[in-house]
C-alpha cells in the first residue's frame, strides 16, 4: 500500500497514523509522570501549571532533580553546602503546592552536570525502578540555551528513555531485578517548537506562588524582573494556543528521535 504513496505530506500523515501518534491528548493514558529537571525549580518554571492539572486529575508526578542547585546565588556569605540544603527545602514546599509528593535527587554539582555514562545509567535505573508512562525533560535544542546543565539534562533524559528498554544496557540492573522499561510518552518542556499546549490561565497565580516558594532564588528585586518574564513566556505560549496563559510542550513519536530528517515538522 505504502508503495503507492507518491507525496511526502501524504506519506507523513499515513506514517503518523501507522505509529498511532495522537497529539489531541498525549496524557490520556498516562498514570505516572517523571519530570526531569536540571535544577530545583525548573519543573515548576517550565511546567508548574501542567503538573498541577495532572495531579488534580489523579496522575502521579515524580520529580528527578539532576543537580543540588548549590551555585544559584550571588550572596558570597552563603556557602554552596548551605544553599543546597535551603534549596531542597524550598523545592519540597514548591512541589507540595503542585501536588507532587516525591523528589528524587541525583545531587550532581550545580553547573557541572556531566554528560557521562554514569549520569545516563543513574537515569536509566530510575526509569526502570519507577516505570513511568511519561517522561518530561528540557528541550536540549532550545536555541541560545546558555546553561550546560539544561542542555545536558535534556540529552541525558533522551538517552535514558532510549536505552532503559534495552536489557543489555546496564545489565547489572536487570540482573539485580530491575526490568527493562519502555516509556510510552516523551515530551520536552522549555521548547521553542511546541506542538501541544496546556491552558494554565486558571492556575497561573498558583504557579507563580509555587515558583516564589524558591525564596533563595526569587528575592524581591529578582522577582521584579522575573514576574514580567514568566508572564510573558506564558502569554507567548498562550497566544499560540488561543488562550491567555499556556505552557508549551513538544511530543514526538519515539521513532522520530533518531535519524529522521523531518522530525521538526510535527
Ligand atoms: Zn535550571
From TrEMBL:
InterPro entries assigned to the protein according to its UniProt record, in alphabetical order: GlcNAc_PI_deacetylase-related, LmbE-like_dom_sf
A molecular function GO annotation: hydrolase activity, acting on carbon-nitrogen (but not peptide) bonds, in linear amides
UniProt protein name: Diacetylchitobiose deacetylase
Signal peptide range: none
Lineage: Archaea, Methanobacteriati, Methanobacteriota, Thermococci, Thermococcales
Species per Swiss-Prot/TrEMBL record: Thermococcus celericrescens
Pfam families linked to this entry: PIG-L
UniProt xrefs under Gene3D superfamilies: LmbE-like (3.40.50.10320)
Amino acid at each position: 500500500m505504502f508503495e503507492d504513496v507518491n507525496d511526502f505530506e501524504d506519506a507523513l500523515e499515513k506514517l503518523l497514523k501507522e505509529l498511532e501518534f495522537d497529539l489531541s491528548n498525549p496524557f490520556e493514558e498516562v498514570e505516572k509522570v517523571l519530570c526531569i529537571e536540571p535544577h530545583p525549580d525548573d519543573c515548576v518554571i517550565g511546567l508548574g501549571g501542567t503538573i498541577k492539572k495532572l495531579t488534580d486529575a489523579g496522575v502521579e508526578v515524580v520529580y528527578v532533580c539532576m543537580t543540588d542547585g548549590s551555585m544559584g546565588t550571588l550572596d558570597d556569605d552563603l556557602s554552596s553546602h548551605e544553599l543546597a540544603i535551603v534549596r531542597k527545602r524550598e523545592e519540597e514546599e514548591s512541589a507540595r503546592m503542585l501536588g507532587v509528593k516525591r523528589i528524587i535527587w541525583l545531587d550532581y554539582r550545580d553547573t557541572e552536570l556531566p554528560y557521562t555514562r554514569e549520569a545516563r545509567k543513574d537515569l536509566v535505573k530510575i526509569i526502570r525502578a519507577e516505570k513511568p508512562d511519561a517522561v518530561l525533560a528540557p528541550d536540549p535544542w532550545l536555541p541560545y540555551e546558555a546553561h550546560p546543565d539544561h542542555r545536558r539534562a535534556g540529552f541525558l533524559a533522551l538517552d535514558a528513555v532510549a536505552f532503559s528498554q534495552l536489557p543489555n544496557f546496564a545489565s547489572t540492573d536487570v540482573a539485580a531485578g530491575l526490568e527493562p522499561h519502555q516509556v510510552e510518552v516523551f515530551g520536552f518542556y522549555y521548547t521553542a517548537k511546541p506542538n501541544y499546549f496546556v491552558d494554565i490561565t486558571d492556575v497561573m497565580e498558583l504557579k507563580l506562588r509555587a515558583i516564589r516558594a524558591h525564596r533563595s532564588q526569587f528575592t524581591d528585586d529578582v522577582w521584579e524582573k522575573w514576574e514580567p518574564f514568566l508572564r510573558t513566556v506564558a502569554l507567548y505560549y498562550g497566544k499560540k494556543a488561543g488562550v491567555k496563559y499556556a505552557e508549551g510542550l513538544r511530543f514526538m513519536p519515539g521513532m522520530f528521535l533518531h535519524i529522521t530528517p523531518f522530525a521538526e515538522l510535527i
